[in-house]
Specification:
Layout lengths: L1 E5 L2 H18 L4 E4 L6 H12 L9 E4 L1 E3 L10 H8 L11 E2 L8 H14 L5 E4 L21 E4 L2 H7 L12 E4 L2 H5 L3 E6 L5 H9 L17 E6 L9 H20 L5
Parallel strand pairs: 1-10, 2-3, 2-6, 3-5, 6-9, 9-10
Antiparallel strand pairs: 4-8, 7-8
Helix pairs in contact: 1-2
The structure holds 2-amino-2-deoxy-6-O-phosphono-alpha-D-glucopyranose.
2-amino-2-deoxy-6-O-phosphono-alpha-D-glucopyranose binds next to α5.
EC number: 3.5.99.6
Function: Catalyzes the reversible isomerization-deamination of glucosamine 6-phosphate (GlcN6P) to form fructose 6-phosphate (Fru6P) and ammonium ion.
GO molecular function: glucosamine-6-phosphate deaminase activity
């Protein structure tokens, strides 16, 4: 697990956007796994601006969102489909027919889950899976005690997650208690996993994910077993790590190595 510590949230977004841009320049028909929540918003803003400047294009991209509330119509402003359309898809040149979000209003959610898995496989798998993290260490809606090999399925939300997300719903309004989420096993098959976290409220989850035992009690800790995960955090989210300076040192070494490789002259 590569841990990159940046000064603040805008720097986290810039670092993440750089990796997405490189992937798109190398492979315009990439498959992206996307996330909702407030954390990825500034990354999306960076990518929208890059698209407007003509540096990248999403015209050949296919995307699969991590999760969706159950029992919310896609038109509901708090559905993750509506969030993605509003915050990202409507502002880039992606073909919306190529953007998949689990259908929270499916007549048969169980069939919908296996169809979602099949669609990811048919697309050739996910090149970059973007993740945020819940305060309890959840990824997608894989709450603590989730099976670390789970596939896309219906999950019950914990009280903490319901409370954390209550701010998006009006008082007295129906708030979903169930979700459809990619499983941890699904996420683990992405070629690259990029997890972003900012702010003090995520510090404990980041410590548990990076240092804790691999445990269903912190679902994100499964990423310790993923061969290519980059965790990009700000100073506050990194503040409970035992040795943040070591990660900063590694990053300096990596950047120096990259610069050396770029400046190297090869005989023609
Ligand atoms: N299902 C989403 C997660 O995918 C997200 O990572 C988490 C954290 O959201 P935020 O970035 O707003 O803290 O919220 C929700 O529960």
């Amino acid at each position: 697990m590569k841990v990159v510590i940046q000064d603040d949230s805008p720097a986290v977004a810039r670092y993440g956007a750089y990796i997405f841009r490189e992937q798109l320049q190398k492979q315009p028909a990439s498959v992206f796994g996307l996330a909702t929540g407030s954390t990825p918003l500034s990354l999306y803003r960076e990518l929208i601006n890059s698209t407007r400047r003509g540096e990248i294009s999403f015209s050949q991209v296919r995307s699969f969102n991590l999760d969706e509330y159950m029992d919310l119509a896609p038109q509901h402003p708090q559905s993750y489909r509506a969030f993605m359309d509003r915050e990202f898809f409507n502002q880039i040149d992606i073909d919306t027919a190529n953007t998949m979000v689990p259908p929270g209003d499916a007549a048969n959610p169980l069939t919908a889950c296996s169809e979602y898995e099949n669609a990811i496989a048919a697309a050739g798998g996910i090149d970059i899976q973007l993740l945020g993290i819940g305060r309890n260490g959840h990824i997608g809606f894989n709450e603590p005690t989730s099976c670390l090999a789970s596939r896309t399925r219906v999950k019950t939300l914990t009280r903490q997650t319901i409370d954390d997300n209550a701010r998006f719903f009006d008082a007295g309004e129906f708030q979903p208690q169930l979700s459809i989420t990619m499983g941890i096993g699904t996420i683990m098959e992405a070629k690259l996993v990029m997890l972003l976290a900012t702010g003090k409220s995520k510090a404990k989850a980041i410590k548990d994910m990076v240092e804790g035992p691999v445990s269903a009690w912190c679902p994100a800790s499964a990423l310790q077993m993923h061969p290519s995960t980059v965790v990009i955090v700000d100073e506050e989210a990194a503040s409970e790590l035992s040795d943040p300076d070591f990660f900063k040192h590694i990053e300096q070494q990596n950047q120096a190595l990259l610069a050396r490789l770029k400046s190297r002259r090869y005989p023609s």
